[in-house]
Amino acid sequence: MLKQRIKSVLVAVLAAAGLAAASLIPTATPAAADECTSAPNWRAGTNYVQGNVVKYTDGNYYIAEHANPGYDPTVSTWFWNPHTCSGGGNPNPSGFVVTEAQFNQMFPGRNAFYTYKGLTDALSAFPAFAKTGSDTVKKQEAAAFLANVSHETGGLVHIVEQNTANYPHYCDRTQPYGCPAGQAAYYGRGPIQLSWNFNYKAAGDHLGIDLLNQPSRVQTDAAVAWKTGLWYWNTQTGPGTMTGHSAMVNQSGFGQTIRAINGSLECNGGNPAQVQSRVNKYTQFTQILGVPTGANLYC
């Protein structure tokens, strides 16, 4: 009864002042769907408590894992972790563990052909890619794939193989279907430089695209290009013993992804400089995504 009288008096006082009673009632914490749309920009020197979400200068969102006096979110995952928002506030509606801002950070000088949308449109063809295991494993797989892609294309700069002298070599006429697009039509294209007529045939059959007769689609359609890269990553062991996808999901290590892509030439001391280049890029990309590299980096 006393509480009711106090409330009545409060309402009367507020009414006289032209205010609504609700204005003095604390509002609920914003729902998860709004946590990023309402997140403030990060500011150095500002005190943050555990659970605070901020938007950093790179356009990505971070959540405070421990209270801190405004440390840089990209410096230490002890204080901050990359954060994917839920609901309407999600800065990455595609659901891919790499945001567009992170993708642009990884490939600042990329060819305009290699669009982020082309990549995310291609993901539906391989639903297990970067969606298997823990959040850390998902991000490690994405980083591993993109690191190898970066190495193969000079940072997503090259769409086609640069050594044109190799072009006529990629036609294996012992195959029953031959090379209907021409002797020199099956040169390296796309993010993992798909080459040889039998690889174009196998990738096209898997994807439901006639790449044997139309290999040029890999250099004219960004989604098709990305799909061929993901096809190799998810289904082919190459000179290795497992696919790139299996290597990361089973935590066999980044080194096994190198073996699957070019192990016969680079692994076991074949070309340590090339291996180191891939490892360096993988290390950089895992740092961008805020996850450890894991063990067994070399092959």
From TrEMBL:
Residues 1-33 form the signal peptide. The active site is at residue 152. InterPro entries: Glyco_hydro_19 (IPR016283), Glyco_hydro_19_cat (IPR000726), Lysozyme-like_dom_sf (IPR023346). Pfam families: Glyco_hydro_19 (PF00182). GO terms for molecular function: chitinase activity. Disulfide bonds join 171-179, 267-299. The keyword Signal applies. This is Chitinase.
